[in-house]
Design goal:
Strand order of the largest sheet: 2-3-4-1-5-8-7-6
Largest sheet: 8 strands, mixed
InterPro entries: Glyas_Bleomycin-R_OHBP_Dase, MeMalonyl-CoA_epimerase, MMCE/EMCE_epimerase, VOC_core
CATH topology: 2,3-Dihydroxybiphenyl 1,2-Dioxygenase, domain 1
Order of helices and strands: EHEEEHEHEEE
Number of strands: 8
Pfam family, one: Glyoxalase_4
Keywords: Metal-binding
Radius of gyration: 14 Å
Family: Belongs to the methylmalonyl-CoA epimerase family.
GO molecular function: metal ion binding; methylmalonyl-CoA epimerase activity
Number of helices: 3
Shape: globular
Length: about 130
């Protein structure tokens, strides 16, 4: 596996994208709205910043109300998501997603529960 992106929850993806784009010399690589959120990916050397803004009720809005803005998750890329989930299960890791589901850019994704990963919400992304 390799680093893919860090997800950042924000109430203003466009404003934060403008700030980070200039600060980090990180152009916008992709934008879309799905599953009640707007996502903006900023391209970095070796990965992305994913900015997550709620577009309606859902997990990101709930997260912002509970935790406030900031790092939401860390994503790792894999070539074989089902095998990565099997490996996690074999090691007793609690899964948020028992099976892969659609994610941004049309990638299959699955999340590991933070109670099993030192408090970090980990996303596996099949690329």
């Amino acid at each position: 596996m390799r680093f893919d992106h860090v997800g950042v929850a924000t109430r203003d993806a466009a404003g934060l994208a403008d700030s980070f784009s200039g600060l980090l010399d990180a152009p916008v690589a992709h934008e879309e709205t799905f599953e009640g959120m707007r996502v903006v990916f900023l391209e970095l050397d070796g990965g992305y910043f994913e900015l997550l803004e709620p577009a309606e009720e859902g997990p990101i809005r709930d997260y912002l109300e509970r935790e406030g803005p900031g790092i939401h998750h860390v994503a790792l890329a894999t070539d074989d998501l089902p095998a990565a989930l099997d490996r996690a299960r074999d090691r007793g890791v609690d899964l948020v997603d028992e099976e892969p589901r659609p994610g941004a850019w049309g990638h299959a994704v699955a999340f590991l529960h933070p109670r099993s990963t030192g408090g970090v919400l980990v996303e596996f992304v099949e690329v």
